Amino acid sequence: MKKLPIFVLLMxxxxxxxxGCSITTQNKYTExxxxxxxxxxxxxxxxxxxxxxxxxxxxxxxDPSIIQKVTHVIPGTELPSEEGTINFPLDNGSxxxxxxxxxxxxxxxxxxxxxxxxxGDYIPTPGKYxxxxxxxxxxxxxxxxxDGTFVFMRDLATSYVPQGTYRISADELILDVxxxxxxxxxxxxxxxxLKDGTHIKELVPINSLFLRNEVEHLIEGAPMNFTEKEIxxxxxxxxxxxxxxxxxLKKLWYEEEKSTxxxxxxxxxxxxxxxxxxxxxxxxxxxxxxxDETEENSVLNPNSTYTDYxxxxxxxxxxxxxxxxxxxx
Length: 329
Fold this sequence. Notes:
Blueprint: H1 6-14, E1 43-46, E2 49-58, E3 68-69, E4 72-73, E5 85-86, E6 94-99, E7 103-109, E8 112-118, E9 127-131, E10 141-144, E11 149-153, E12 163-169, E13 172-176, E14 182-188, E15 191-197, E16 209-212, E17 216-220, H2 228-241, E18 247-255, H3 256-269, E19 282-291, E20 305-314, E21 323-328
Parallel strand pairs: 4-5, 17-18
Antiparallel strand pairs: 1-2, 2-8, 3-6, 6-7, 7-8, 9-10, 9-16, 10-11, 11-12, 12-13, 13-14, 14-15, 15-16, 18-19, 19-20, 20-21
Protein name: DUF4829 domain-containing protein
Signal peptide: 1-24
Domain DUF4829: 241-328
């Protein structure tokens, strides 16, 4: 069976620019991105899992009713983490989840169906992992970025927040901060179990369990003011830095008509009136989150659902990264 030149195509994807996220001082740390991220294997995210190309073409007929369109393409230096997302160049791509004698995904390329199998090398899905039974609910977490970097919030009360690059060894996730500082977790599906680490035992007990927090990202309609990538970069920034004690982020969405009205209000009555930011550099994202019964949060009501909560992101220019300038109702 022939193999498509997908790895050659990936070299083009590596040259795509990646917009990082700048963290505001209110979040206690500053972004540190690697200069040369590693190239990831050609992959697609389907039904909560990452599937990787085998390079094998399958001479099969696929039921048209199960064929889906690829939603968007991300750089080849990242692993996909949203439904229907791929990390290699493919125009008007389509795919299907096959569940007959085995479960796999086929992706249509050059009028052939190429087989993608579920990753079996324990690579965890990028995103935020919340510690179960943390001292402050929601106050201890790990954020794994698709580009292979991480942030580890060990406790909201600490001023030092480790960050660096992560790697996989067998069934272990290793967070490397420096030669002297590291943290090791056992990977069990979409959960992480702390096994060892430096400067850790006094803050996070060994065998602490971290569970992935699934956050729904929605972009309504066909945005005209921003590209999909610009919007998703903004959503990723909010998801990464969300840290209300006792609160769990559930959904982020962009609705252009409503977001534009909120932006105009910010420019006329809010900080936009005095900070000199141009309207095209203001992005408003809406969110939904829930709170538990914790008493650690003196601002939010316990056992409540907050919806249409606004996040106002700004940037100095189109080439700069987003930063959070304001939030609330």
